[in-house]
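Here is the promised in-class demo. Please do not try to memorize the tokens; focus on the logic of going from shape to residues.
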């Protein structure tokens, strides 16, 4: 579609599909919140440069504009990240996916004790670009490198290695091929808004029903 064809209704519909606020779209497009607000309310006719910035920000987050009236998420896909450094490369992917729009990343079964220095630095990089973290961890695990307020303990019977990490419209599932020592060497990243929304609901239920860890014994806490 031609850049001139995008309209306020499509922009609002795209934000709704992504569950974005006007602030999120402003960050993703490099524009001010005031500009986004005026465009959506019909009080400002955007210049071509402004329209292009909005289109780029939305398309980078899996939005497609069909014609002068339509908007949809791109077709679902799966990306596979393999190798001994797959988790570090996954964190790099997340950074490039969210660096302009922030948001939140949810860890269903986190174990901070397994992270090396490079992976901790990868998380710090994500936090500096505005990505919020929340984690569900096995009850009794006190090696926690994030603020305790961002964590909840879940009973050991519910804790399973290899279950999802959720951000934007994506769900990542990591696989331990070497089951005895749980060496991660493959991550599947599903681009599926419906799956992500369902997993977020499950996460929120567990978050609301389990308690915050009382202390951390980790030598470093990433704020």
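The designed amino acids, position by position:
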């Amino acid at each position: 579609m031609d850049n001139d064809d995008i309209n306020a209704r499509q922009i609002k519909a795209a934000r709704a599909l992504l569950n974005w606020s006007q602030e999120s779209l402003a960050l993703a497009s490099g524009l001010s919140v005031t500009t986004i607000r005026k465009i959506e309310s019909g009080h400002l006719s955007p210049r071509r440069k402004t329209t292009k910035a909005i289109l780029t920000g939305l398309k980078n987050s899996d939005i497609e504009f069909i014609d002068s009236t339509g908007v949809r998420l791109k077709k679902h896909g799966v990306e596979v990240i393999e190798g001994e450094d797959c988790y570090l490369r996954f964190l790099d992917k997340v950074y490039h996916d969210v660096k302009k729009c922030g948001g939140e990343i949810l860890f269903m079964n986190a174990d901070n004790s397994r992270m090396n220095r490079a992976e901790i630095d990868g998380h710090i990089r994500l936090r500096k670009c505005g990505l919020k973290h929340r984690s569900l961890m096995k009850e009794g695990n006190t090696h926690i490198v994030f603020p305790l307020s961002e964590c909840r303990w879940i009973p050991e019977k519910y804790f399973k290695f290899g279950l999802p990490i959720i951000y934007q419209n994506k769900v990542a599932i990591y696989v331990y091929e070497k089951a005895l020592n749980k060496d991660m060497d493959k991550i599947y990243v599903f681009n599926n808004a419906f799956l992500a929304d369902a997993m977020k609901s499950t996460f929120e239920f567990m978050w609301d029903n389990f308690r915050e860890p009382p202390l951390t014994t980790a030598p470093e806490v990433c704020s």
